[in-house]
Amino acid sequence: MKSNIRILTYTALMTAFVFITTSVIKIPIPFTNGYIHAGDTAIFLGGILLGPVHGAIAAGLGSMLADVLGGYAHWAIPTLVIKGLMGFLVGYFSSEKRNQKHVLWGTSLVWFSVLLYFMVHIGNQAMGTIQENVEGVSTLALAEALVSRVHGQLLFTALGLPLLGLLLFKLKDRYGITLSQLVGMIVAGIWMVLGYYVAAGIIFGNFLVPIFSVPWNIVQFAMGGILAFVINQGLLRAHVHQRLLQHRS
C-alpha cells in the first residue's frame, strides 16, 4: 500500500515537472501555431524512472495541461495522445529485455524513409502552392527560399541525428544511461516528430505545411535527450533510481 502511494506521489511530481518544463520556456513554431520547449527532458526521465504506464500518465497529463493553460488548447488532445505514448515508449524500450539492435535498425529505416518523403514532397510542389498555403510566404521568391532552407534542414537532421545518437552512445556510461534507455529516447522522440506531423495535418487539413515545422520538433527532442543525460547523472548521485526501482518492483 505504501509503495503504491509513493509511486503515485512520484508520478504526480513528474507530471508537475513535465508541466513546468513545458510551460516555462516556449519558442513559437512558425506555420502550425505550436511551440517547442524543454518538456521532452522530463518525459524522457519520467519514462526511465517510472516505467511505461506511470511515465505515460505523467507525460500525457503534464503536457496537456501546459497546452490548455498556455493558450494552445487546440493541441490538448493530440498532445495527450502523442506525449502519453512518448512516455510509454521510453519506459517500454528502456527494458533490458528488448532486442535493441532490431529496434534501432527498424527505427532508422522509418526515419530515413520519412525524411526522404518529406524532401521529395515539398520539392515536387509548385512554388505557387507553397505561397498559397504557408502563412507569411507572400512571394514566389520567399516560397523558393523557404523550400531550399527546409531541404537543407531536413538533410542536416537526417545526418545529424544519427551522429548525435552515436555521440550519446559514447557518453552513456559517463552519465549513467543504458543502451536500452538511449534507444527508448530515440524511438520516443521520432514518434513525437511524426505524431505531431500527422496531428497538424489533420487539424489544418493540409499535410504539406506541417513539414516545415518538422526540423523544429527534431531540435526539441534532440535537446531534450541531451538535457536528460545531464540531469540523469545528478539523479543517480542522489540515489533516486534505486528508490524508485524499489517501489516499482
How is the quaternary structure best described? single chain
Strand order in the sheet with the most strands: 1-2
Strand content: under 5%
Helix-strand string: HEEHHHHHHHH
Tally of structural domains: 1
- Mean of all residue-level pLDDT scores: 90
Number of strands: 2
Number of discrete helical segments: 9
CATH class: Mainly Alpha
Spatial gap, N to C terminus = 13 Å
| Major sheet characteristics | 2 strands, antiparallel
Helix % is over 70%
Shape: globular
CATH topology call: Arp2/3 complex 21 kDa subunit ARPC3
Provide the CATH architecture.
Orthogonal Bundle
Question: Could you please describe the fold and organization of this structure?
Answer:
- With 249 residues, this protein is mainly α.
- The protein has one domain (2-248): Arp2/3 complex 21 kDa subunit ARPC3 (Orthogonal Bundle).
- Helices cover 80% and strands 2% of the residues.
- It is built from 9 helices and 2 strands; from the N terminus they run H-E-E-H-H-H-H-H-H-H-H.
- It has a two-stranded antiparallel ribbon with strand order 1-2.
- Helix 4 runs parallel beside helix 7, helix 5 crosses helix 6 (140-175) and helix 6 runs parallel beside helix 8.
- The relative contact order is 0.15.
- The model has no long low-confidence stretch (mean pLDDT 90).
